[in-house]
Amino acid sequence: MIDKKKLFDAYLFFHEGQLALAEIERAGIRIDIEKCLAVRQDLSDKISACEEEFKKTFLFQTWEKTFSDRTNILSNVQLEHVLFKVLKLKPIKATAKGRNATDEESLMQLGIADVNVLLRYRKLRKIRDTYLEGFIREQTDGVLHPFFNLHTVRTYRSSSDHPNFQNIPRRDTFARDITRKVIFPRKGHQLLEVDYSGLEVSIAACYHKDPEMLKYLKSGADLHSDLAKKIFNVPVIDKTIPVYKKLRDAAKNGFVFPQFYGDYYKNNVDRICDWIGLSPSREIKEWDDSAGIKFPSGLTIAQHLKKQGIKCPNDFEAHMARVERWFWKEKFKVYDEWKSKWVTSYQKQGYFQTLTGFICKGEMRKNEVVNYPIQGSAFHCLLWSLIQLVKIQKKEGWDSRIVGQIHDSMIVDVNPAELMHVAKVIKKVTCEDLPRVWQWIIVPLSVEMELCPVDSDWTCKKLWEIPET
DNA sequence: GGAACTCGCCAC
DNA sequence: AAACGTGGCGAGTTCC
């Protein structure tokens, strides 16, 4: 049954939420426009040089022979033709519409050095044309005012545009440095970023209430390390040793998170192999002893896996099928049962209602049915916090301002004189007030804070904690 | 000549 | 049996 009270609360909540987001949009975020222009020029020079380099390759020469004056190295239709018709290479995978894919992953698997130059060219173009051009175009008086929308996303998350503030590079160090080094606080201020730690996993637990997961969330034990131990059969994961950190990251990003989104073991194999430096090709009968990352002892991951009887990707796939089965049918059995029940209920009712009161209806696939409520409700935790903080900011007359939001994190432009107070209030609102008001939150919430020095750009952020007393 | 689609790629 | 969730955006391509 639809809980009408909760639904009406949700309706009012989004009105309040959009007003808070409007304040964030109005505050805006400062960029260094001179720097933007200089960086854009520098990128243009690099792009020209890269293009010249590409023109020397065999790949380009074949391309130009085929398309003559119509040659356009940004055309993937042309690239597909050159690679798979002219050069008759074996396609790696298909796109959604059945063409031969020419994305980074596929190109790398072709085993042709020439594609590296093209990929570098694409990366540079992306940084310049999507990010810097966007910043320059959208700024007024050196300030960006990205929009934050609540009416565009099926899960009741937010979106952002003009420019999109929610997809500025972070993982790739080169792209990150270029794009984030133009983003600043107002003069004499500093940027503070506050992230909810593992928010989606915590909110998922409020739905399924799996005792094993609740144990992790309440004890602070490390799920990803435990999975790394299981997948690679190692006794301990010491995150300070690079190779073990890699194994943990492989377990986290190659298995745990994809599984939570509804992925399955066959894809997990490819992702994990990528992380640990092994080929995932099922044609390989046995990995070379020298393959993959190395333990401090000098043993390679290939040698280590072979000792477990896993000597090739096919063996690893069989192993991961067992791990997956254990993961859902034993370890997180209650979570798995919740997913089935949630889907069955949706199929019977034709809709479901989130813990935050929102209704999702219409045709949905299984994975969507179990993912939407989690994704939406997690974001609503942030949105609730933003509403309170904007109110407090106004009431107390802060000079500090929230200037951005990325699903489970907020970016604050802080007056240094207010830093301690602002940080304490944020911590109280996000971790104490919220779970008190939303009683369905049955797990502890925590935030991680990162702070930049005064007048420093966004890349200067360092892990930071509120000092005692 | 512009709308709509497709692909690739960035974020969570 | 089925098989990764949500967006925005640039550039190329297709369609009218």
SSE run: HEHHHHHEEEHEEHHHHHHHHEEHEEHEE
Roughly what fraction of the amino acids lie in strands? Answer: 5-15%
Oligomer: single chain
Strand order of the largest sheet: 9-10-6-11-12
CA(first)-CA(last) distance: 49 Å
Radius of gyration of CA atoms, rounded to a whole number = 25 Å
Whole-number tally of structural domains? 3
The beta-strand count equals: 12
Please identify the structural class as seen in this structure: alpha+beta
Tally the helices: 17
Mean pLDDT: 95
CATH topology of the largest domain: Alpha-Beta Plaits
What can you tell me about this protein's structure?
- The chain has 17 helices and twelve strands.
- By secondary structure, the chain is of the alpha+beta class.
- It folds into three domains: 171 residues, Alpha-Beta Plaits (2-Layer Sandwich); 109 residues, Taq DNA Polymerase, Chain T, domain 4 (Up-down Bundle); 113 residues, no CATH class.
- Strand 9 and strand 10 form a beta hairpin.
- Helix 8 packs across helix 16.
- The radius of gyration is 25 Å and the shape is globular.
- It starts with a helix and ends in a 5-residue tail after the last strand.
- The model has no long low-confidence stretch (mean pLDDT 95).
